[in-house]
Write a structure and sequence with these properties.
The chain contains 28 helices and 17 strands.
Amino acid sequence: MIKQGSFNMALFWRFFTSYFILILIPAIVACTFTYFFIVRLIEDDAEKLNNVTMRNFADQTDRTFSSLKTNMINLLSTPNLVSFLQVAGDSPDNQQRNELVHSLMEQLNKIDSGGLMYSAYLFFVHEDLVIDFQTYTGKEFYFQHYYPLEPAEKSALFSYFSDKQMMLFTEPHTMYQKPLFTNQVLSSYSHISVLMSYPFNTRSPEVYLVVNLNEDKLREHIGITERWVTGTAILDSSGRVISQTGSMRLDADSWSDILQASQEGSLFVNEDGQAVSVMRSHFKDDWYYVSLIDLQTLLQPARWISRVSFVFLGFVLVLGSLVSYYLSRRLYTPILEIKTGLESHHKAAEPKPWFPVKGNDLDVIKQFSGLLISENKELSRLVGGMFPIVQEHFMTKILLGEYRDGLSIEYYAREIDFPYPSQAVRTVLCIEIQYYASVLDQLSETSRSFLMAELKENIRKRMPVAVWLCQTRADLLACVVHIEPAKPFGPKEAAQILQTILAQPYYKATIGIGKTVDTIEELHISYAHALAMLRYKGLRSEVEIYSPDNARDDRAAWDSFLSVQEVNKIFNRFKTRDYPELLQAVYELLEEGVRKNATAFQVKYLCSDVLNTWIRAVETERNEFGIPFYSGLFVKLDRCVTWEEIRDCFREIHALLFLAEKPDARRGQLAEILEYIHEHCGEELSIERFAERMGMSAGHFSRTFKEEVGEKYVEYIAKVRLAKAKRLLLETDMKIDEIAEQVGYWGRNSFIRIFRRYEGTTPAKYRSIHRK
């Protein structure tokens, strides 16, 4: 701002000196008075406010504990307790004793602790008995199941049951809540127990009343909601913490030092810079209520006044400098202002000037003015080129239903220079573009963009009426056709023109004709209806047109999902390794879809179900494929747009998933089976057993056996058994029944019948003839 020649320095100091004497000195005096007097008054008021808050907090807490003390004394003074002490040692069958127990349980349940109590119970010193408001039982059982504690905490608690106690607050201990007779811990609670003995003035009491205070609720109760209090605590004179909340975490020695150094009603700041307020309790003489004070928050009004005072002083100083500078300026012409503004503009826009600045101030202004004019022209051309994109985006918003109010549409259209008649007949035609699988991988995103731009240009040129075009999705082009009543041209004629334009070798196109609407704000209805028409598209390669007239659901019924029988048939064919039949079954389903003129959505659903069943079958035996591989198969199937592409896709998937069984491996398995038959021909040799071993059905195994061995399975088994039978007939003296059993026949008759069919004679005659 300050440049050579823009003002006179001597005049500046003259004006500034006068301003300093007349205005700045009084402002400094006022700020000093504010800081040393008013701020001090605020600090005293803040300290008094804290004392009042602490006193109210102390009185409220004293009343709560005094009320609890009164309730405990009243319970221990009740005649029921005195009467029970006389019969406490009697048998549990004593009816009077049981009635007194239930009366004491009801009185325990009525103890008012201001919402702090978790439970209360009576601990009898000379009896193995504990009574609370829910049950009465032995001590060991009670502290093991009803009030379970850690052994160390249990010992510490029992140590208090040995002397006269009057409102004794124990150390915090943890009670674990468990289901009865189990060791499963459901939750845990931290408690502080309050003890009172009876009789009151004896050092050998007979019973102790114990009230368990929930430590979390006690912390909530003693918490002060004022924002300057960061923590509160209840201490005794030795520094032991009865309970505390907030950020107060000091040891007993530190608390003891604070209590000795603090004075009630004043703030004590310790060595760590923490402000502490102490208030003596009226409930117990050796109790103190302590709060940790955030001085920054408590004295915030004082600090704000101090800051405002210093800010005001600085403002007055800066203001005086600016006024003195303004009054001292001698020469400041409009040329200098214009030059400075132009230079600052172009220095902010570019790191370096766009051209060398030469000449005087007027020449600089001329050069920069010419530059601004050229920038304005370039910006106008840029904005003009962006209008079609903005208008297409605007039309997309209307079709998607984001703009439905006529006034808002009119306002936005005026902003982007989009003229239109509000009342006109229009129809939306949705054009879905699906690139063929063989073309999709070869076309880049840029190529597809150029094809779409060329398509839009052709539509605009060949349509005899005005049209609006916008791309609502990557594969969807919306064409809004303006219907002129004077011309015999409607949505069907427009769709026929589009059909000739869309006949391309790169993609399959489907045209959906929407409803005709009268206003622009209803175009989203026409668009939604045209989009619904696309669901009737088929899998033929030519351009398809669907409107409410030809999209009626009058096609043959088509089940888009496999039945349970078909799924089981696929699994059985997979198990029998009948892989060609799996592919042939898919071809048959597709042929049925062609005959029934099924929609692309129906066919895709069915094909996805088939592919999913194939994958489930393959996963039973092969695990080398992962989720990305299977997902890629579904993506590949979804890209298919014609019947032929779906057939080719399933042919490729079939080749990937189902590997034909190698002949060598099959022969090896059959060799093992033949060896087993020869060694165990006397046993039961069912064909199902060997078919399961080779992962085939019985029929498939029988055909494979005949192809490889040259004989039927049944005949081969009979010949092996008869060969062994003939050897036994000639080499041994075994009976016919024994030989039949040795070669695997159940009885003599079946053995003789099979032997006669293959040998032409009975086993006995065979033995006699060949032995001679």
